[in-house]
Write a structure and sequence with these properties.
YaeB-like fold, 5 strands, 160 residues, 5-stranded mixed sheet, 18% strand, alpha+beta
Amino acid sequence: MPKVNRTPQAKQDLLEHVLYLAEINPDIADRFIDASELAFEKLAQMPLKGKPQSFQSPRLKGMRRWFIPGFDKYLVFYRPIKGGIELPRYSRMVSFEEIAKNDYNLNIPRYIDSSEPEDLHDLNAHLNGGIPDVNIDALQAYWQVFPTLKTDLFKAAREG
C-alpha cells in the first residue's frame, strides 16, 4: 500500500483547518477529513497526479499541488517519494488583510514560507565540548529502531 508521510507541521496545519471548519459546521469538518484522507490515498497511488509547483528555494524542489475534492479553497502541497508521497505542509487560510498587504497579489509563493529553518547553536557545547542534547534528541527515529544505541554511544558530560 502506498504511504503518506506527514510532517509534524502538516499534521498541525490539518488540525487547524479542521478546528476552523468545526466552528462553522462539525459535519463539514468531518467531510473535510474524509475528503483529505481520500485525496492523500489517491495521490500516494498516483504521485504525479498533482500539478508541479516551482519555488525558488531548493528545499521545496519537486513539490506538486492538489485541491481537496469538494473543498476547492484548500490546497495541499506534497512531494512524490518512493512508494508514496510526503506532505511537508498543508495550505493555510490567508486573511484579506494579508492579501491587501501584498498588493492583492495572489501568486502562491508569496504566501509560503520557503526560508530555511534557523540553524541554532549551543554556545556551551562550542565552548566546553560535547554534543547538545537537542541534536541527540533530533535522532529519535534511530533511537526507536535501535533502543540501546543512544546509551551505547553517548553519556552525559555536562548539563544540556
